Amino acid sequence: TVFLRTALAMATGGKDSHSGRPQYTNRLIHEKSPYLLQHAHNPVNWYPWGQEAFDKAKMEDKLIFLSVGYSTCHWCHVMEQESFQNVEIGQILNENFVCIKVDREERPDVDKVYMTFVQATSSGGGWPMSVWLTPDLKPFVGGTYFPPEDGIYQVGFRSVLLRILEQWKRNRASLLENSQKIMSALLARTDVGVRGEEVPPSSQEVTTRCFQQLLESYDEEYGGFSESPKFPTSVNLNFLFSYWALHRSTSEGAQALQMALHTLKMMAYGGIHDHIAQGFHRYSTDQRWHVPHFEKMLYDQGQLAAVYAKAFQISGDEFFADVATDILLYVSRDLSDSSGGFYSAEDADSYPTIQSKEKQEGAFCVWTAEEIRQLLSDPVEGIPERKTTADVFMHHFGVKEDGNVNPMKDPHNELKGKNVLMIQYSLELTAARFGLGLEELKALLTKSREKLYMARRQRPRPHLDTKMLASWNGLMISGFAQSGAILGKKEYVDRAASAASFLQKHMFNADSGKLLRSCYLGKDNSVHQSSVPIHGFLEDYVFVIQGLFDLYEALLDPKWLEWAAQLQHKQDELFWDPKGFAYFSTEAADPSLLLRIKDDQDGAEPSPNSVAVTNLLRAASYTGYKEWAKKAGQILAAFSERLLKIPVVLPEMARATAACHLTLKQVVVCGDPSKEDTKELLHCVYSTYTPNRPNLPQEIVESVMGESPSLLALSSVQEEKDRKVKESELSWPSGSNVNHSSGAWL
Predict the structure, then answer these.
(1) Gap between the Cα atoms of 553 and 603, Å rounded
(2) b vs e for 476-505, b when ≥16 Cβ sit within 10 Å of the residue's Cβ?
(3) Which strand (E) or helix (H) includes residue 276?
């Protein structure tokens, strides 16, 4: 590819504002990643991560500037506009560095290696991530976002580049020595494994400490586990549900359940929840869940749908079922490909109007009071006061005439005079305020939201990242499958099965038995692969296997269980550490990766090893293959020190310790799957929250036990271990209307 230069050096770079034709084109034009394509017309001579860039750096003895981000990242857009579209900065980069651009969602392996360095050597991490490497890929300076020029509190990007060049010329030997020391320290720091004859830590000690640590950070007023920013950390909520299930009769158990349900309600009331077009934004910038960072990520939708469905399963409160349905509506409508896969994300930034020349964060989602008054001008009939629908709607959702966004949460004044909708009052209070009946108010608010949704559809939409990732599709399969089983909605389970079929067709190599990391929506609306396909990482296997188990339990089609077991064997082959135990995040084959890391922290997504523990226990329970149960214990042993000291950073793994130490409950359902009595029994199973419970239909038990069972095979928690249950002693759930004579039984 020829990097095109132009004599018309415009300070903004990018596309010619009059003709719309690109002035610059670099090697990223040949990539499939939406993020890389966003930078294909920068005046920076970007390379994708690969041997061509590495060879150039060594041959020309140049430093590497590595920039890592993702296509829906607000601050990535800001740095591109300010620095990477700046011709003068582009010239400094092109003449002195080999510039590499990486999509962190496409290459999480590269991202994790250098983010580990940035977090270890600076005050934090994030995206865009900016790292300077030696020609042999070793980092020596790193950071995140840099403004283009020096400011009061931060050195500008131009100055950073010039200072690094000066240091490289004057103190090269010292920089190389420091780089080597840092890498040695990182190798030691990331070395997770067993020390001697370690055994899995005490489940009671780990879970009790994890609960106490969550309690210490819990926000009693608004829910969540920090002041700000606040993330919808599903791993914390899942842990609290499990803790409650194991301590139902204690005050701590009741407190754990209250913490989880209150957090979920406050999130659903807040502006982090899109009250018009459904789904959840990535995080809240404030304590009240009000002003979000407006991008929407697939991994959040998948996890939150399952969590809200479980909240309904536990509480019986239809509010939680409605939120789960809301999330799945958004994903089905806006993040679904016709082939069955799920897209990755929707951007935070968009053009306020068709005529706008600059994008603004949240423009697609926010409202002025005047807009709402114009759209909802109908008078409300049957009440003493003369009020319009807008009056009721604005009261309920906290809309103010001059906007409801705290200026402290709007550093660029993009939301000035605008409103982020959040539920300010309960339905009962709003109904009482306006003298309306409850059902009348619900109908009014539903109709109002529909009008605002239709108006929003006329606005320019945010960028949609149509990249499809195996791992996030796995999480979304779990969301649809679990929600479908709990809510009794077959269409959700069918949608999960469609996505699983998509993965098997487009993201699985049957010859090698390997998953692929990603595929992309092409210009012809068909599914495309990159020219050099990226093989799946540990997280892809773990989340897909989990999704397949959830799909199997919801659908009881053994083909999904068989594929899950096949992938589990392949995961063991590619990623297992036989010396230190647990799984590496990447295969051993890539020489460009300086570290093989074992993630030791749950974040917006659970760490792969955390989920792997539960997967292995489920796989062992289904197949009788005891080696998998042994591996689950070995993972816990490898992370024992972290689990005992700060389990709050691994709540999903802390939850799994209980499953490892206590005998799994196995529910065996015998009967014709097509008959109503069998379906009602299954519904009874799905309607009860019991963590760590695999459902075994008769044919699976036969394959494991060698014969058809004649009574309930129920292995419960320890106090029920030795209990023998005969068919005549079975207690049938009241109201189940099961035809006992037909032969369907638990």
Answers:
(1) 26
(2) bbbbbbbbbbbbebeebbebbbebbebbbe
(3) none
190 or 234: whose pLDDT is higher?
Answer: 234
Amino acid, single-letter form, for residue 730: L
Structure tokens at 623: 């197949």
Report residue 301 as tokens.
Answer: 């939708």
* 192: CB partners within 8 A, 6+ apart: 580, 582, 598, 600, 638, 639, 642
3-state SS, residue 386? coil
SS3 content of the chain, % helix, strand, coil (to 5): 50, 10, 40
Nearest to 496 by CA among 309, 622, 231: 309
Q: By the 8 A CB rule, do 624 and 696 touch?
A: no
* CA distance linking residue 631 with residue 422, whole number of Å: 46
Collapsed DSSP state (helix, strand, coil) of residue 211: helix
Report how far residue 348's alpha carbon sits from residue 32's, in angstroms, rounded to the nearest whole number.
Answer: 21
Euclidean distance between CA atoms 579 and 463, whole angstroms: 45
- Coil, strand or helix: which one is 346? strand
The DSSP code sequence of 66-134 is EEEE-TT-HHHHHHIIIIIT-HHHHHHHHHHEEEEEEETTT-HHHHHHHHHHHHHHSS---SSEEEEE-
Residues 6 or more apart whose CB falls under 8 angstroms from that of 637 comprise 194, 198, 199, 200, 201, 581
CA 469 to chain CA centroid, Å, is: 11
Retrieve residue 497's tokens: 């099965």
Residues 298, 547: Cα–Cα separation, whole Å: 14
At residue 729, does pLDDT exceed 50?
no
> What is the Cα–Cα distance from 656 to 652, expressed in whole angstroms?
6
C-alpha 578 chain-centroid distance: 29
DSSP string, 673-740: TTSHHHHHHHHHHHTS--SS--EEEHHHHHHHHSS--SS-----SGGGTT----GGGPPPPTT----G
Map tokens 């601050």 to a residue.
75
Sheet of 464-465, strand order: 296-297, 345-346, 464-465
CA 367 – CA 720 distance, rounded (Å): 56
Q: d(Cα 267, Cα 239) in Å, to the nearest integer? A: 17
17 band by pLDDT with thresholds 50, 70 and 90: very low
Q: E-strand spans in 193-308?
A: 283-284, 292-293, 296-297
Whole-number Å distance between alpha carbons of 535 and 515? 6
State the Cα–Cα distance between residues 426 and 414, nearest whole angstrom. Answer: 29
Cα dihedral value 123, 127, 130, 135, nearest 10:
110
Q: Is the pLDDT of residue 612 over 60?
A: yes
Kindly tell me the burial class for residue 282, based on how many C-beta atoms sit within 10 Å of its own C-beta (0-12, 13-18, 19 or more).
Answer: buried
> In the 3-class helix/strand/coil scheme, how is 508-539 assigned residue by residue?
EECCCCEEECEEEECCCCCEECCCCCCECCHH
Please tell me whether the peptide bond between 733 and the residue prior to it is cis, using omega within 30 degrees of 0: no
pLDDT over 80 (residue 629): yes
Strands (DSSP E) found in 422-481 = 464-465, 467-469
Q: Which residues of 295-324 are buried (b: 16+ CB within 10 A; e: fewer)?
A: bbbbbbbbbbbbbbbbbbbbbeeeebbebb
Question: Can you read off the two tokens belonging to residue 184?
Answer: 């040695």
E strand intervals along 331-483: 345-346, 349-350, 360-361, 464-465, 467-469
Distance CA 708, CA 700 (A): 9
Q: How many CB atoms lie within 10 A of CB 81?
A: 16
**Distance from C-alpha of 587 to C-alpha of 591, rounded to nearest angstrom:** 10
- Least confident interval from 341-345, 384-388, 404-408: 384-388
262/243 Cα distance (integer angstroms): 16
Instruction: Using the structure block, give the residue that is written with the tokens 């092109």.
Output: 94
Q: What is the pLDDT of residue 20?
A: 65
| Cα 548 from Cα 624, distance rounded (Å) | 18
Q: Count of residues for the chain?
A: 746
Beta strands at 63-69 and 46-48: parallel, antiparallel or unpaired: unpaired
Q: Are 669 and 695 in contact, with CB atoms under 8 Å apart?
A: yes
Which positions ≥6 away from 59 have C-beta within 8 Å? Answer: none
